[in-house]
Design brief:
By secondary structure, the protein is of the alpha+beta class. The protein has one domain: Dimeric alpha+beta barrel (Alpha-Beta Plaits, 2-Layer Sandwich), CATH 3.30.70.1060. About 40% of the residues lie in helices and about 25% in strands. The chain has four helices and four strands; from the N terminus they run E-H-H-E-E-H-E-H. The protein has helices spanning about 10-20, 25-35, 60-75, 90-95; strands at about 1-10, 40-45, 55-60, 80-85. Strands 2-3-1-4 form a four-stranded antiparallel sheet. The longest helix is centred in the first third of the chain and has 14 residues, at about 25-35. It is elongated and about 60 Å long. The N and C termini lie far apart (about 50 Å).
Amino acid sequence: MGKYMFHTTYTGKGLVGLLKEGGSQRREALTETIEAMGGSVEGFYYAFGDTDLYVIADLPDDATAAAVSLTIANAGALDIKATVLITPETVDEAVKKKVPYRAPGTRAARSRK
């Protein structure tokens, strides 16, 4: 199961629906969507600023998260971005991996004989 944060902004069409239904009913509807895809909602928050709504959800995989995101965006009520969230333990694993990378403008170290 992966964890995802959806950043959404209401379109004009979406605001009409939000004003009609209210925040709690929209939370219920989006929770049903996530659960129908085998996931669960961990957090659901409206916000002031550039983003109107944050949803933190567990979903089975990236393809499922993409399907949810694409379907919601296609409905036209929300502009949506998804962020994959990772645990501190995943970061621990990542920092232990050796990555062969050379930054632009640098030369690989030459071995001395």
